[in-house]
Amino acid sequence: MSEIRFEGVTKRFGAVTVFEDIDLTCPEHAYLCLLGPSGCGKTTLMRMVAGLESPDAGDVLIGGERVNDLSPAWRNVGMAFQNYALYPHLSVSENLAFPLRAPIRKGQMSEAEITRRTDEVAGLLRIAWLLDRPVGALSGGQQQRVALGRALIRNPPVLLLDEPVTHLDARLRYEMRAELKTLHARLGTTTIHVTHDQSEALAVADLIAVMNSGEIEQVGPPMAVYDDPRTAFVAGFVGDPPMSVIEVPVHPGGDGPRLTLGDSALTPPAAMSGLLDGRDRVLLGLRPAAVDLVAPDAPGAIAATVYAHEMVGRELQIMLSIGEGQVRYRTPEIRAVAVGEAVACAIDLDGARLFDAQTGIALTAGSDPAPGRAGAAMPETPRP
Amino acid sequence: MPRIEFDRVTKRYTADTTAVDALSLTVEDGLFLCILGPSGCGKSSSLRMLAGLESITEGEIRVDGRRINELEAGTRDFAMVFENYALYPHLDVQGNLAMPLIARRMPRRRIAERVAEVARTLRITEHLRKRPRQLSGGQRQRVGLGRAIIRDTRTFLMDEPLGHLEAYLRVQLRSEIRRLHERLGATTVYITHDQEEAAAVSDRIAVMSDGRLQQLGTLLALIDNPVNRFVAEFIGDLPIVILPAALSSDGLTTVLAVGESRLPLTPEQAHRLNGATGDRRAVDLGIRPRDVALHAEPAPDRIAATVSVTEPQGDATVIIAESPIGRISARVPSHGAPKAGDAVHAAIEIERLHVFDGDGRNLLHREAG
Question: Partners of B310 in the beta sheet?
């Protein structure tokens, strides 16, 4: 059994509380990504599983067993870091075998067994041809494979990965993340992977836990997190590009509430109207597909100005300022755009998401108008 | 604004280490040019020669037609922004911003006005009284940018200004840099290894490798019309797939044989290959994952493969599949995307494929015109 469970875990560094009362479960054989911006507490949380940090309150359980007081050496956890932490003067095979020859395990494994295991892991990671080379002579991608191999050499039931592909160039990053996924499908090792890259988390994980400022905002399968963000932070963080999240005033009208975008008042679809009752502000989450550029005299046209524009691959993305907020528009039609240019846009509210203006929590039919849990609202620095 | 020309500029550190090899490149007046390439490609050396921080071994750099090789760095009148912001730790933000103006003996009141204006532009007004160490990385980099724009500079040189910021901060600051450029209109040379950043900020991208300029163009041109395999592999948000193939022609149609599949080329492509295909000729086929569609049914012009990995990305999913001739990948809509273990047949958008010869030249490259 290698389920990993955090129960009411709190961590403080001096007067600073990193997180408080965290509950999170990574089921046995699952691949869980802890995703969030730097400083959100994700690495500290993972390090608790390895025993490199200890909780100030609460329990960390591996396979149902409380490990708070178990020394790191006895936890049977494999770990690979972003800076590899390899011995540059030792060969690949010596680096791989290092954990097997550690003093704590002296004499537990014969040299023949060590060689067999080293060859097996080298084969798995396709580095068999590098076994005799000193690690210092390898490329970044090769070193990352060695670090991964060393984490796997003891066949640990639990694997911890801290930004394992961050430092690799784009091409290798894609290659390695496919590799991680293939490896997990083969070995089924319960894995926690820490990253700030939402695209990586969506690509490799079975489960994503999105963290922000020491809070877990949402836990779920990648596409569930993408399709149905539970907080404004998740909406504005996950997706490439993510949703645009803007704060809009709500005005009561004779025939139902209206959303005010810049100079225009929009009538929300019927399903959304009920959610707006009794609110004077709301956070509106829009995917780029909900935003279109239209002629200024088109019905429902909203006045906007170009805040910024950029080419992303073969498409043009334009950030439009509407009132105080900004929304992203994308199109494959490339044309000249200038910052400050006046344009008109139409917004389709059908697929839009609403979040509480104070707590950032998603509004859904039947949701409590005053949610008890204090969610974090907007990202600390909203993405343009 | 100034026009900058590199004319066969070479930098050699020792007799046998050439960092920059006969670089010829013109940055038109008011243009935002990115020099993009992997580490060690010579991009930073090129910028440092322009700035006057490195000597020029051979060739000439001209600004508005005037040779500047011998000009002292301090007299070249470029504003520079580096990856490490190099702020004065003992001065607050206001003091850091004002420094270039104090050095130029600008009257106090004018300085105060300028600082307020720049702080507003970069949205750091509320941090003016803070020291650099009280700021986040993104805020510090804004101050670094502010210090560069505070005097009316006509040329910006930026060396990986967003290099060590986190992804989401980079995304935010790169649009600020672009906004600034459109407001000030200064000629800008910007160094980065990140193609997404290059595309977001610049008008033109110069791709360098091994000290040489490989190609100069817009992002779109680099994606769809790469001059060689290096550019094709370096550019593109998903790595291009390269498969061994053979070209043959029966006089009427030119066909690319990829494993068991036969891809008929368009007449225009055949024309550009210019009869180089009389015999069966070994080449490398390059396909971008966005130009591949996956089908359940086989066809003579589709490549059969088995899905090994699926990577959801929101509305789209990246599919990695193994074919007898090598690994292929495709970016397909998430709705109805195949699953690991599924048999798929990859249809390639013929107009978008690339053909490389043994030296890595793109045989289908069109000269810009």
Answer: B319
